[in-house]
Amino acid sequence: MNFKINKNIFLRYLTITGKAISHFSPLPAFSGIKIDVDVDKITLTASDSDISIKTVINKDEKNQLEIEKTGCIVLEAKYILEFIRKTEGKEIQLILNNDTVCNIISPKSNFRLNGIREFEYPTIDFTTPENKFTLSANDIKDITAQTVYATSDNEARPVLTGVHLSCNNNELSCVATDSYRLSKKVLNVNAFNFSLTIPTKTLKEVSAILEENEKVEVFVSDKKIQFKFDDFLIQSRLIDGVYPNFHRLIPTQFNHELTINTNEIKNAIGRASLLKTDGISIIKLDLNENIIELSSKSLEIGSTEEKLDAVFKGDDLIITFNGKYVEDALKALQAEEEVTFKFTNDMGAFLILGKNENLIQLIVPIKTY
Question: What domains can you pick out in the chain, each with its CATH number?
Answer without folding.
Answer: 2-120 (3.10.150.10), 134-246 (3.10.150.10), 250-363 (3.70.10.10)
